Amino acid sequence: MITLHHLEKSQSIRILWLLEELGVPYEVKLYDRDPQTRLAPAAYKAVSPLGTAPVITEGDVTLAETNAIVDYILDRHDDGRLRPAPGTPERARYLFWFHASQGSLQPLLTNKFVMMAMTTRAPFLFRPIAKALVGGLDKAFFGPRLTALLTEIETQLGKTKWFAGDHLTAADIVMGYSMELAAARAGMDEVTYPNAHRFLKQMRETPSYIRAMEKDGKGTVLL
Ligand SMILES: N[C@@H](CCC(=O)N[C@@H](CS)C(=O)NCC(=O)O)C(=O)O
User: Fold this and answer.
1) pTM score above 0.85
2) pLDDT one-digit tens code per residue, 20-74
3) Where along the chain do its domains lie?
4) Ligand 1 close to Cβ of residue 152 (< 6 A)
5) 89-206 adopts what CATH topology?
6) Tell me: the pLDDT tens digits for 88-116?
7) Is the CB of 101 inside a 6 Å radius of any atom of ligand 1?
8) What DSSP element (H or E) covers 152?
9) Which residue, judged by its Cα, is nearest atom 18 of ligand 1?
10) Ligand 1 pocket member 52 (CB < 6 A)
11) What is the CATH number of domain 2-82+210-216?
12) How far is it, in rounded angstroms, from Cα 189 to Cα 62?
């Protein structure tokens, strides 16, 4: 049986949602973040090869990296519902959003968050320098890339109910966490991005997502 090692307020929520959506038998072990560093605790790092969440174990297999875990689970437990078949119009959209989530959006959001934390945690005298540096990086690199992605998200969700089409797929499951993060911390507001917020509402009302959130018990985004 799959064991999901679930770190609170982390990307691991996607795996919990996926397992609930598939109705696969699984076990979940809950871990709190280290109260000081807000990183994964030592017990978690002992399980995860990269020290990061999510990670699953099943028999001799230990697997980290969100999208590797999603594909591993889908390979065994999905009949094609959550991963559109090759050759269908949904397939290209599915592949794009499934990979854009972990290849582009999530790294941009994580880097932005780390940079913001740097400005508040830097020693007092260095804070103005840190702020100027981070502001410059954001203006030249992170800001434009993030805006381009959020604009593309808004356009896509203006055309289709879910990211790949009319039905929920694993692309929505991986995008979901990043969308919550973008709304909470990266300026994806309801006025500029109404379709994105329509997606978030729809996701939060999905029964399998509600069940995952109940098992998680903490809420998704680290603030
Ligand atoms: N690319 C990795 C990123 C994993 C990652 O950075 N996870 C964060 C949780 S949102 C984490 O483990 N943070 C705690 C830590 O670094 O100790 C994936 O998709 O699994």
Assistant:
1) yes
2) 999 999 999 999 999 998 899 999 999 999 999 999 999 999 999 999 999 999 9
3) 2-82+210-216, 89-206
4) no
5) Glutathione S-transferase Yfyf (Class Pi); Chain A, domain 2 (1.20.1050)
6) 999 999 999 999 999 999 999 999 888 88
7) no
8) helix 143-159
9) 65
10) yes
11) 3.40.30.10
12) 38
